[in-house]
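Subject: for your reference before the review

Hello V.,

The reviewers asked for a structural picture of the protein, and I figured it would be easier to keep everything in one thread rather than splitting it across files. Below is the amino acid sequence we used in the manuscript, unchanged from the supplementary table.
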Amino acid sequence: MKTFLKLLSSLFLVSLSFGQTVLPPDDAVRQLLVDRIDRDHRGVGIVVGLIDAKGRRIISYGRPAKGDKRALDGDTVFEIGSITKVFTSLVLMDMAQKGEIALDDPVSKFLPSTAKVPEYNGKKITLADLSTQSSGLPRMPSNFAPKDPLNPYADYTVERMYDFLGHYELTREIGSKYEYSNLGVGLLGHALSLKAGTGYEAMVKARVLAPLKMTDTAVTLNTGMQARIATGHNDQLNPTPLWDLPTFAGAGALRSTANDMLTFLAANLGYTESSLAKAIAAEISIRKPTGNPALEIAYAWHILKKGDRSLIWHNGGTGGFRTFIGFDPQTKVGMVLLSNVSTPEGVDDIGRHIWDASIPLAQFDTKERKVVPVETPVLESYVGKYQLAPGFVLTVGRDGARMFAQATGQGPFEIFPESDTEFFAKVTNLQITFGKDELVLHQGGQDTRAKRMEAAKDRKEVVLDPKTLDGYAGRYQLAPNFILTVTNEGGHLMAQATGQSKAEIFAESKTDFFLKVVDAQFTFQLGADGKATGVVLHQNGADVPGKRVE
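And here is what came back from the structure prediction:
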């Protein structure tokens, strides 16, 4: 759901008109934070840093933890998550500028000879491929099975990463397609560290943080930072632990403050002189397509295009934090937003709205909606796939009288009828109007029309002995913080993914099952005793394996 909302927001940006060129006043920004925390209940504390030709500003609202009476300020420490990737790529640019490496060097050049990196048609994955998110490596390795879901990266070792790389087969030409990969940038940070002969943190400090005089950014918290770090909260606003990323440090391990991030923005905007000026310029020197006409990728940075303007940005998210940083090289303004709650919406929309007021904020449905009964033939007539944009499909399915929708690469969510043609979601402010072989998606003040695509494959259900189904019941780890729970409920096998609704899965064979609510299938891997040891989720052309964890 988190990515679903973000993708939809990105799709809508292409149609928006030219907007503001100056940053809004403090009171207007503060009201955005008040609304997000007090009205929408999607935050505990948020700090915003703004920079332009007039100087720097800090605006904050909320608390560093629920019940904590201390105020937030520009020195409060937050996990910045994937914004770390920008620092990793800046190290890459610095090394390239100094002739220590070449951007087209294969990453395997810097790894031990025993480490094998997948190739495609004889082509090797380069450092640039990893930085521009086009290596062909998946978002996460399939052997990622954390012991502690609340600190999922802590026990993932370099040896396990090498083992995955040695067995993984690329599915397409390297560099041919954008696909965001934590694994890819984690590998990049690891390889650069080996080249530097130091750990990741020491490398970033020496090459970026020290030259820019960023004294409050680190992986390891010193005593002062420990005293000032905000408490992270999950999307239910409950406290949750910090994350440790020893192997994937380059993908998301840094912690920082709004003041330090403004120092970083000042260097990127040219307000301060720096020995890294050439490397900073090189980091946004390339622009590659992502498949979304409003979005491009540079080295780590993403580029939002709007008219003749561009916002250079990245966001970050951990179990308890959501962050956003962006700058406009034309108007020379920048913003950083740090939140100590990890919600699906994050703070991306506020950051983009600060940059351009015509970009809508995330909307939360406050209208009282009543669910009405709809006849089964009418519900069945809406089942199918609807193309919202190239490569972005909304699949609508039915499970009895319940209707579900699922966007490409995301989990299903239930939609509820308020008339024969009007449906709404409860998990977010989203409505759908169905017509003949089409639908209109209403979200964020935008209406997106989509035509129905091909019909789903006709699958034949077989009946298995209820006792056999007991062997499939269990919990399967598909990704960090994403568990598939399977239960046998009176001879009906039910599946429920983290944060999603429960739905029945139906057998096609002893190992193959399918969902009726969305176009997704499961293949269970059985041990000699008939008990499942793992499962593979087949959906949207991808096969996602998961090991049984209990």
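For the response letter, the relevant points are probably these. The two ends are 25 Å apart (CA to CA). Confidence is low (pLDDT under 50) at residues 1-20.

Happy to draft the paragraph if you're swamped.

O.
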